[in-house]
Amino acid sequence: MADKTIPYKIYLSEEDMPKAWYNLRADMKNKPAPLLNPGTGKPLTAEELSPIFCEELVAQELDDTTPFIEIPEEIRSFYKMFRPSPLVRAYCLEEKLGTPAKIYYKFEGNNTSGSHKLNSAIAQAYYAKKQGLKGVTTETGAGQWGTALSMACSYFGLDCKVYMVKVSYEQKPFRREVMRTYGASVVPSPSETTEIGRKILAEFPGTTGSLGCAISEAVEVATKNPGYRYVLGSVLNQVLLHQSVIGLETKTALDKYGIKPDIIIGCAGGGSNLGGLIAPFMGEKLRGEADYRIIAVEPASCPSFTRGTFAYDFCDTGMICPLAKMYTLGSSFIPSANHAGGLRFHGMSSTLSQLYHDGYMEATSVEQTSVFEAAEMFARVEGILPAPESSHAIRAAIDEALKCKESGEEKTIVFGLTGTGYFDLVAYQKFNDGEMSDYIPTDEEIAASVAKLPKVPEN
Amino acid sequence: MADKTIPYKIYLSEEDMPKAWYNLRADMKNKPAPLLNPGTGKPLTAEELSPIFCEELVAQELDDTTPFIEIPEEIRSFYKMFRPSPLVRAYCLEEKLGTPAKIYYKFEGNNTSGSHKLNSAIAQAYYAKKQGLKGVTTETGAGQWGTALSMACSYFGLDCKVYMVKVSYEQKPFRREVMRTYGASVVPSPSETTEIGRKILAEFPGTTGSLGCAISEAVEVATKNPGYRYVLGSVLNQVLLHQSVIGLETKTALDKYGIKPDIIIGCAGGGSNLGGLIAPFMGEKLRGEADYRIIAVEPASCPSFTRGTFAYDFCDTGMICPLAKMYTLGSSFIPSANHAGGLRFHGMSSTLSQLYHDGYMEATSVEQTSVFEAAEMFARVEGILPAPESSHAIRAAIDEALKCKESGEEKTIVFGLTGTGYFDLVAYQKFNDGEMSDYIPTDEEIAASVAKLPKVPEN
């Protein structure tokens, strides 16, 4: 086995935790394009956004010049309950692969939400509390984000209303119960509690719901009830900002041992984890201080970076949200059943989309069965049962490590392990039973939904 | 909030991890009574035990004089994947309770088995591998032990056959899938694969199984198949020995900050967690070097310490295992439905039983609903969804902290948080729905099963 002067797990001390988030946009020459009002085609103002989002979060959303934004003391206190998260040297995986590569992963799953989502949930809940709000609303599909937000709201004594896609509400009762244990009210969507929910139920009585519909309901409730705002767990600039703690801790830990990564890998759905993990490294790259290969990994069934179009599109399938410029498959694109619920989004964060467009990062897509093969190998040798989303990054990291084995290069690979798969055992069961299928959308399917992209001035 | 010179989480460095397990029995004046052969009533010899257990484990089981037993390098390597586990200062819980007490918990749930069981599973798998065995067999109820053993066997390339109580196999498919992902074969018990299974199925065609029956099947397969041995996750001396890593790490972490606990609290089913947590502290107490209040917490529905009898009894309900002297409710005692599956055992480790009998520790019992109230409060303020078993210790720790609030005493309380409740959401759902019930067995019920204790010379 390798020389183990580097510990298995690098834990920072609490004093080494970041005191400010890093705002990647400040170092971008080509800024991400602004959100547009779908009615007027004009950039949304703080005034237009503040009935939906908390004031301070609107400011963070629109700020593309301040490089560091202080993390309030209350949020740092909460972070200490589950952070710093470990940066793990994957000695056992390296040995299993027989690779000369050095593999590290930043593990964000050691908290009850089971993922990195808590990093932004607690920030968003804090600003809601600070503004004197009563509560927040959101949607959840697989449930990680809803769980994280429930935990955050419980901590600050905020009311939390989660619209959970009906099919998940019924098929994932355990996630629902975690949210309820944290005091959230969880409503299956579409529901009779909103105008849009009632309308959809009247039109499609048997529908099992969709994320787009759940978003619409959550936004309606937030805007119609005084003292409520809507919060979102990915895609937005503010979310990437909060998630920069992942990358900042990773960089501090690597620096502590004088390690310089060659390749940084993250899975990408809406971009919250990837954007957070790469933030300080991308910053160095943008400022010309260092160079890294940065790889986004997406499912072959929902390949927004690798097969999408860089254009303005709706963030939701219901087409009620602002327009964002991003790599998109079209908001009407319906990904095939893929167990990585967190990666089934038709678009991608505007910030990451711009960076990809400008050549600062690569993207690759991987198929589901090979993702679960990687997940199983990882679970067996590293002792952590990974979330399907995270396993996309594992797959790509293993593939890069195997290339090193062929070439004999001792590259240093860092990847983001965003969470655990304890609530994804239905997917593992399918894999264990040999019943998992891969589906790759045809060019025609993608062209059909891209053809429906909204017409806006910039398009 | 309190002065925070102590970090939220005390992590030891890998060099600070124990290099030897501590064998508490070496410091006991009154040794735990030996296991007896139920046929002859005589103490079991190494020769009699070795067809069932691995040789080195038999030696550990019988050794009550060696105080420290080296942890092999291979096991220490594996420990580094999930250890050292954090000792957490429960600042948020203290604040919520408004207590002057200082509360710490040793958290063993940050690994995929979700509990402390992995500490002994990896040791038992290691010795099986070292002996050149092909594999091991075991039983599992709730599934923590089976999961831990599957992970350990996968690491060492051993075959792992788990007999899972049929009702759990059907109602807890997710635990089963974790085990399968780690390559274990999981058989619902009773099964057609064993003689005793076929016999039971013929006699009781509709049975949903029991732990006693699963033990019988696992033992039969181990003894009939060359190259296999049976392993067990609690009760035995060897298991308490391996679990001493919990207490050793806890003591090192406390010593590092000059903290001396007043009260040490652990939940108690078979005693593996409690015995491990208290080991070095009890050692000091036995040697007269320090004094601590040590409290075992058991469910009111299965109160072996507080309402049981100190006598020789079978370890299993099937009455095929050796006789152990312990606090017992009688091996025919059937605890009412209690969601803390790991605490539904009629007896208690012989070592802990002797210590309790000799007045070195206290015991208390708590009711299920109050346990879940404590669990919910803990989850909300400390951010970890605890296992129902662990929550018994939380309940008792909260009660002690509230006594400090009344008296104004600044006591230091340490408790064991053995695991997470991610696979116990059915129980949480019952609690959330207000459908949880408490049941305390009557004196007559306990007397009836105690009356059936086996007749042995020492009785």
Helix content of chain A: 40-55%
Structural class of chain A: alpha/beta
Residue fraction in strands of chain A: 15-25%
Q: At the third CATH level, what is the topology name of the largest domain in chain A?
A: Rossmann fold
Give me the Rg of chain A, rounded: 21 Å
The helix count of chain A comes to 18
Q: Looking across the biggest beta sheet of chain A, what order are the strands in? A: 1-4-5-15-10-11-14
* Biggest sheet record of chain A: 7 strands, mixed
Uncertain runs of chain A with pLDDT below 50, 5 residues or more?
Answer: none
Overall morphology of chain A: globular
Multimer state: homodimer
**How many domains comprise the coordinates of chain A?**
2
How far apart, in Å, are the first and last alpha carbons of chain A?
55 Å
Work out the largest interface and the residue count of each chain. A-B, 44 and 44 residues
DSSP summary, beta strand count of chain A:
15
Overall pLDDT level of chain A: 93
CATH architecture term of the largest domain in chain A:
3-Layer(aba) Sandwich
